[in-house]
Write a structure and sequence with these properties.
heterodimer; A: 257 residues; mainly alpha; B: 222 residues; 84% helix
């Protein structure tokens, strides 16, 4: 009698897609809105008087950091809600995990677009400006947070540990921001924002539209990520039950043989 | 609570005194880091003197991370971790005890490195009070942050790599402020260093408070 090999496919109950009608709608909307943003940024809006064509990077750069900060704020709020005994639910842990991960991706995008923009306008990829330094550390801090989330542990342990790490991360970022700000005011004269002209008219409109479309895109990703975390949890729980059942079956075979 | 803290600190420091890991391995490594900096900067004494405060704190960072790792790796063997949890000691007292033991080791390390930069990098100290205050406050902030993340990574298999990733961004502002405070104290800049000491005091207070609150839940989890 041959042993049935355990299937490599996920258990059926977790094999459902993470999409629903609502998220498909959200996904479709974000694709269309991003397409319109690209059109607005590259074709409709004019080039800048000072920065020329390079200003078009702004429509990708500013929304990414907006999304990143928004996500991290939600992650911090969700972590606090998780730590507060009265509101402690697994749901908040998943919200924190999903938003922090999406936020980290957008922080990376912000750094990349910012460096490209910097290369064009300042001639260098990097300046030790307060905002750049803080953003870079923000990125590393949340990489650390995601590493903590991936530590193998009991779900309750992992959630509490991550929630505490998320709150320390927020405190850390405030301190980093403050100290590099101070460092800059003491050591650097020129402010990078001084040369930026006021944003008005159709440029402002396009920028606001870009903010909304990136927010929709991020929400879509976060919802999917949330559902994926839920499925991972299901898989872990079910995996344990399956493993027990398989070992029992093996033991049964051993006795019979 | 303070009696418990003293107990934990004394246990750790006794262990360190007897094992001599800190003095025989971490300290020589810290001095080696200074030597490597001289290689990297082509033994340019002027440059080494100017960069001295920064290089000093980077060396403290590298060696200090080892101290923090060591403070928690001695807890992970032989089920000491569970013993600590069952000991009935107040978690905040354990945090303070660890803070003191890590802090004392860091201070020894810093004193030795200070001698190192004076000898090797030709750094001359003009304001000893500023040096001592910046070192003391910077040490508390460093130790507090290190102990928080040390207990978090206790019992985790990837502790060696996780701890630096978590701790360095937290220690980065401490490094920045301590370096800036050291610069006027060794005559590299004319700016006042006391503002940076004030910042270090705030950072040390914030991380100590965070540690007192979070040590209990993190220790239970490990």
């Amino acid at each position: 009698m041959a042993l049935t090999r355990p299937s490599l496919l996920p258990p059926r109950s977790t094999a459902a897609p993470t999409a629903s009608v609502a998220t498909r709608l959200l996904g479709g909307m974000s694709v269309v809105m991003i397409a319109v943003t690209v059109l607005l940024a590259l074709a409709v809006t004019p080039a800048d008087v000072v920065q020329g064509e390079a200003v078009r990077l702004m429509y990708a750069h500013l929304p990414t950091i907006w999304v990143a900060y928004g996500s991290f704020l939600v992650a911090a709020g969700a972590s606090a809600l998780y730590l507060w005994p009265r509101t402690r639910r697994r749901h908040w842990d998943r919200v924190a995990g999903a938003t922090a991960e999406v936020g980290t991706v957008f922080t990376a995008l912000c750094l990349v677009t910012g460096m490209l923009w910097g290369r064009i306008t300042w001639g260098v990829y990097w300046q030790w400006d307060a905002r750049l330094t803080t953003t870079l550390l923000l990125f590393v801090v949340y990489l650390g947070y995601l590493a903590v989330r991936r530590l193998p542990a009991e779900p309750v342990v992992r959630s509490r540990r991550s929630a505490i790490t998320a709150l320390i991360a927020v405190v850390n970022i405030v301190i980093v921001r403050y100290s590099v700000d101070w460092w800059n005011t003491l050591h650097q004269k020129a402010s990078l924002t001084a040369s930026d002209p006021e944003i008005t008219g159709e440029m402002l409109g396009a920028l606001l539209f870009a903010f909304v479309s990136f927010t929709v895109l991020a929400s879509w990703l976060i919802v999917h990520r949330y559902r994926l975390i839920r499925m991972e949890e299901l898989r872990d729980e079910e995996g344990l039950l399956r493993a027990i059942a398989e070992r029992r079956a093996e033991a049964g075979l051993g006795v019979a043989g | 609570m303070f009696a418990d803290a003293v107990l934990v600190a004394r246990k750790d420091l006794t262990l360190e005194l007897r094992s001599r890991v800190a003095t025989n391995q971490i300290l020589p490594l810290a001095i080696l880091v200074l030597v490597v900096f001289a290689f990297a900067l082509d033994a340019n004494t002027t440059m080494l003197r100017i960069a001295g405060p920064g290089l000093y704190w980077v060396a403290v960072l590298f060696a200090g991370l080892l101290v923090v790792q060591r403070a928690f790796s001695i807890e992970s063997a032989d089920g000491i971790h569970d013993a600590l949890r069952l000991s009935g000691l107040e978690p905040s007292a354990m945090f303070l005890g660890k803070l003191v033991s890590v802090g004392v080791q860091l201070l020894v390390l810093e004193a030795a490195l200070l001698v190192g930069v004076i000898l090797f990098f030709d750094v001359g100290i003009s304001d000893i009070a500023l040096i001592v205050s910046a070192a003391m406050t910077g040490t508390v902030a460093f130790a507090a942050a290190g102990v928080i993340y040390g207990v978090l990574s206790l019992g985790v298999r990837i502790r060696e790599t996780l701890l630096p990733l978590l701790a360095v961004p937290v220690v980065a502002p401490v490094l920045l402020a301590a370096t800036r405070a050291f610069e006027p104290a060794v005559g590299v800049t004319a700016a006042s260093g006391w503002n940076w000491v004030a910042l270090l005091v705030v950072v040390a207070a914030v991380y100590t408070a965070l540690g007192l609150v979070s040590f209990g839940p993190l220790l239970e989890d490990g």
